[in-house]
Write a structure and sequence with these properties.
Blueprint lengths: L1 H4 L2 H40 L23 H11 L3 E7 L2 E6 L2 H8 L7 H4 L3 H4 L8 H11 L5 H25 L6 E2 L1 H17 L13 H17 L7 H6 L1 H27 L3 H9 L5 H7 L10 H32 L1 H15 L14 H13 L5 E5 L4 E2 L5 E2 L4 E5 H5 L40 H18 E5 L7 E2 L5 E2 L4 E6 L2
């Protein structure tokens, strides 16, 4: 009996039966998922019937209409064809509604919808859940805690620090330039804004831009920008496990490690400095604390200090946003002025009349450059540092024209398309600083280089100050000319970049 019970025939028959059951269960699960997918798509079609869009593939969505690095140009075509908003199918039942009408965007920014989880969670391994990714009461608590770091009493002395970093970059440019060879400026500007940020917000006096070797943090941020954006657009990389096994996933992990090592070193160094009684005395005498000191001395409502995880998330967030977006802004502004020499010269004359030959710029000077400010804003309109931001609707929404969207839909505030929308900005591709003259009128939500509403960029004044300082001091030292053989090609990333760099000819002024 026992031998019969263990016979190979019966054993194999048992396995065959288990395989049949497993196959049947797998088939039922597949049918269930297919039905779920079909029903969800039908619900989406019904919810979006008021919002026409180009035909899409049932699985790959509009993938084939968006060639690599042509995303911005494609969205502009849609903005002209489909008023106010247009659905973009990413794949399967995954989509986002592109909004590029100021009335639509005003409605969304006036609400408290959370950041779109499906998109922003992919950034979290890099910058953690700091002010950019947090939602709800925790976001509000952190925002309230960090707002004093951007008070004008804190920002005033930063102007001299920014000017010192800019002058260092310009000194380096003087040594590098030649009449025949253009200079790729983005990397230099990135190092300068990192130096400036480290000194202003993190009490770190190391000078990254004078190291001969490429700065690993700058390289890591560039890689993370590209890898994160690529992952957002890749259906096969949404799963964390699958992504971690891919070549891009391994590169992403390594770049995160480099970025985190940099921020950990910044935190460790400042904690070490605060062990010194003299440094603590200096802190006590301050009316207001710098960014990192606020984080280190912060107390939550329950009396606890920030956890190491929360502390690093806020430092990672501001380290990235405080240098990369500003570097993008400065680089594109300098290119815009190089491409429009009449406006460049008018800005230079304004700065020269204000600063003379001393090239010493102060807080008070920043509000005395109206034409330069107009030119800066017009460049930010054409090349917004952050091309889009996303929200997930926590409640249904009805727009001013009566069209509506249900809860759960992801909307993308397409800032680049808004800034280039011909219904909002006549002749939008023309560089025209007069759009920002003091007596000009425009929609309150037609210009959003720093987003808007309660979740606008907390560091926007810090950034604008640095843009003005960098532009003013650069124009005093150099005439800027474009390289006609390498016109920059704007590409959509988390932060606006140029596919082929930003190359300028620099001529030292007498």
């Amino acid at each position: 009996m026992s031998i019969s019970a263990l016979s190979p025939t019966r054993f194999l028959g048992g396995i065959s039966g288990l395989l049949q059951v497993a196959f049947l269960l797998s088939l039922l699960l597949l049918l269930f998922k297919a039905a779920q997918f079909y029903l969800h798509r039908q619900w989406l079609f019904k919810a979006l019937q008021q919002f026409p869009c180009p035909p899409s593939h049932w699985l790959f969505g509009h993938k084939y209409q968006f060639q690599e690095d042509q995303e911005l140009q494609q969205v502009l075509k849609w903005a002209k064809e489909f008023p106010s908003a247009c659905p973009r199918w990413l794949w399967g039942s995954r989509l986002t509604i592109l909004l590029y009408d100021p009335d639509y965007i005003k409605v969304i920014l006036g609400r408290s919808d959370p950041k779109a989880h499906g998109t922003y969670r992919l950034i979290s391994p890099w910058i953690g859940y700091g002010l950019l990714l947090l939602n709800g009461p925790t976001w509000f608590q952190h925002r309230r805690m960090l707002t004093p770091a951007f008070h004008y009493d804190i920002l005033k002395p930063y102007v001299a620090v920014m000017a010192d970093s800019v002058q260092g970059m310009l000194d380096k440019w003087e040594q590098l330039i030649s009449e025949d060879t253009p200079l790729e400026i983005f990397q230099h500007v990135s190092l300068m804004t990192l130096d400036s940020l480290m000194k202003c917000a993190f009490n770190d006096q190391s000078c990254a831009q004078f190291n001969r070797k490429p700065h690993p943090y700058i390289q890591a941020v560039g890689d993370l920008n590209y890898l994160t954006f690529s992952r957002i657009r890749n259906v096969f990389h949404q799963n964390d496990t699958i992504y971690s096994l891919s070549s891009n996933g391994r590169l992403f992990k390594q770049a995160c490690k480099i970025a985190h090592e940099h921020t950990d070193q910044v935190i460790k160094q400042r904690k070490s400095q605060l062990q010194d009684e003299r440094e603590l005395e200096k802190i006590k005498r301050k009316r207001r604390l710098d960014f990192l000191d606020i984080l280190l001395f912060a107390r939550m409502e329950d009396g606890s200090s920030l956890s190491n995880k929360d502390l690093r998330a806020e430092v990672d967030t501001f380290m990235f946003e405080g240098h990369d977006t500003t570097a993008s802004g400065i680089s594109w502004i300098l290119y815009a002025l190089a491409a429009h020499p009449k406006h460049q010269q008018k800005c230079r004359e304004e700065v020269q009349s204000l600063l003379g030959n001393e090239a010493s710029i102060t807080w008070e000077h920043l509000d005395q450059m109206p034409y330069t400010t107009m030119c800066i804003k017009e460049a930010l309109r054409l090349y917004p540092p952050v091309p889009s931001v996303s929200r997930e609707l926590s409640e249904p929404v009805t727009f001013p024209d009566g069209r509506s969207l249900p809860k759960g839909i992801t909307v993308s505030l397409a800032i680049y398309a808004l800034h280039h929308n011909p219904k909002v900005w006549p002749n939008p591709e023309v560089y025209d600083p007069s759009r920002f003259a003091l007596d000009s009128t425009r929609h309150s939500h037609s210009f959003l280089p720093f987003s808007g509403g309660s979740r606008n960029c907390i560091g926007k004044q810090f950034a604008m100050n640095e843009l003005k300082v960098a532009v003013a001091l650069t124009l005093l030292r150099f005439e800027l000319l474009p390289d006609p053989s390498r016109i920059p090609l704007p590409v959509s990333r988390i932060v606006m970049k140029s596919k082929n760099g930003i190359h300028l000819h620099l001529r030292k002024l007498p």
